[in-house]
Design brief:
75% helix; mainly alpha; single chain
């Protein structure tokens, strides 16, 4: 049993230190995942919602899968719920969120990843940004391992094509 799974099982039994350790160990990856699936402006709120949902369900966690896989499944559903909510609210135009002042390369990378179709973006972020193994990403997304591999490969190819096109647009320099 891995350390995160042990922490979650202990947290489910009421160990507050284990809960704190679990959140500290997973929060940066959950935040990045939410930021890439939805947007950075709401990633804090979505991350908080992920942990609220997770703690309400922790007592039912049996350890059949790793705690990280379980948590990212919750994060994926939370992000999907937010996207559905936004689609329902689209009747009124929403102002574009202002990018948080940050390193220009990170903003450009985030914008580039945002151009990927949702399934490819999800697979790419889980494996290449968050760093999960392909097998865990497949379990989180509920698809076969080969599907995750092909989505990531297509996402990489698409990102390279965007970069080559952008470089060509800049011209020799």
């Amino acid at each position: 049993m891995d350390e995160l799974t042990r922490l979650l099982l202990d947290a489910a039994d009421g160990d507050r230190m284990a809960l704190s350790g679990f959140v500290r160990a997973t929060q940066p990856d959950v935040w990045r995942f939410c930021a890439h699936l939805v947007d950075p402006a709401t990633a804090d709120d979505l991350t908080q919602e992920v942990y609220l949902r997770a703690m309400r369900s922790a007592a039912r966690f049996r350890g059949d899968a790793s705690a990280k896989t379980w948590l990212f499944s919750i994060a994926r559903r939370t992000a999907a719920d937010e996207i559905r909510r936004r689609r329902r609210r689209r009747r009124l135009p929403e102002p574009e969120p202002e990018p948080v002042p940050d390193d220009a390369e990170l903003i450009a990378l985030h914008q580039l990843i945002d151009t990927l179709e949702p399934d490819r973006r999800e697979a790419f972020v889980l494996t290449q940004v968050v760093g999960l193994p392909y097998a865990e990403a497949a379990e989180i997304c509920g698809v076969p391992l080969g599907t995750i591999r092909s989505r990531v490969a297509r996402a990489r190819a698409e990102l390279v094509d965007h970069l080559v096109a952008a470089e060509a647009d800049r011209g020799p320099g």
